[in-house]
């Protein structure tokens, strides 16, 4: 099936030679050109992201104490058990991406979501065995990443080719952030009234009753569900055509390219610098005269700003023909790190610092999949995005904050650590100015993939 009718002033991402839309109003009005199944798939993505592992991670804050009390474990040991799946599970995304690229989104999403619901509910049955709980949490989280995160980016990319950035920000990033904010008090209320075991049963039930039907009835790709005259999904039971291989670079060539390495470096360091401040905010700002309540409020400001950053990045990237659209957000990163030094007791300085860093974290989560699509096309998109997200999560979100805290403990303060993080922000700013340009849209006659005007420029010009 061909993409939705394109606006004459629009071009697919990765087509830098085409003119940009004249106004934001035209860009938004073009959304009406997408068919009904695109919006059905969008609803499925939203409902799935509401109950995805990134949204449910906010419940860990309220689960640690009751689980530790129930099993007579220390809070540190319990928190470590819950954190292991959060760090390790994203590495199933490359496998999930391969399955999605080969078999299609729905074939992965439907059975995966059902298993995700069952595994989540099964946590309620675990005994006082740390290994057993860790394995079950890891299986549940991995299934969630496979059936939801491994699917939604590909679906948004294919259904909304002219508004990918906005789709990533609204349907995926902002939905996850807002759902996490809503689930946080709800989970605390449920744990206080019903206990942590019943809470896990309720979460598993919600996945089965909300996310699973959405994936089953609404989740289709254009390549696996051709539209009929009324722009509706083919009735159940009718055979669907084999999943079509899309244009773009194969996985091996993409991972060997300088463009991918360059992109991963920029995104990982940007996320690592901002998250090092966020995850160490209590000890960092507590020593500067801020109370725990004030720091918690600043973290909330950062989360709200991240949603704004996601949306703003989506709009800016969709309307730009160059990856340098990410540069203003790296400027926010540098300014935020400079403001950290000025946050020494004044509430507004603290809020501004965290808001600037929040904008960066939101923009980074939208920019990653957008650049993957622009540089490498849709052929192995889910696999490349899975590997990219896994590296950014492990190194930027998992490793950077730990190294920052360790350095602060060794040096007896945060001064040297903050200087190093600020230098990292400056490096990201400089590197973002030299991100390789998008490839041109000429097609290779033998591989049906986009190739640049000069073959070496797509992946090697830095």
Architecture overview:
Residues 41-440 form the Major facilitator superfamily (MFS) profile domain. This is MFS family permease. It holds the Pfam family MFS_1. The chain crosses the membrane at residues 41-68, 80-100, 107-127, 133-153, 165-186, 198-219, 259-277, 297-318, 325-343, 349-375, 387-408, 414-435. It is found in: Cell membrane. The chain has 462 residues and is an all-alpha fold. The chain folds into 2 domains: 31-218, Growth Hormone, Chain: A; 251-460, Up-down Bundle (Growth Hormone, Chain: A). Helices cover 70% and strands 1% of the residues. It contains 19 helices and 2 strands. The chain has helices at 24-29, 36-50, 53-56, 60-71, 75-88, 93-103, 105-122, 130-159, 164-194, 196-218, 251-255, 258-279, 281-286, 292-318, 327-342, 347-376, 381-411, 415-433, 457-460, and strands spanning 442-443, 450-451. The chain has a two-stranded antiparallel ribbon. Strand 1 (442-443) and strand 2 form a beta hairpin. The protein is globular, with a radius of gyration of 22 Å. The protein starts with 23 loop residues before the first helix and ends with a helix. The model is unreliable at 1-22, 225-245 and 442-462 (pLDDT under 50).
Walk me through the topology.
Blueprint: H1 24-29, H2 36-50, H3 53-56, H4 60-71, H5 75-88, H6 93-103, H7 105-122, H8 130-159, H9 164-194, H10 196-218, H11 251-255, H12 258-279, H13 281-286, H14 292-318, H15 327-342, H16 347-376, H17 381-411, H18 415-433, E1 442-443, E2 450-451, H19 457-460
Antiparallel strand pairs: 1-2
Pfam families: MFS_1
Organism: Streptomyces pseudovenezuelae
Keywords: Membrane, Transmembrane, Transmembrane helix
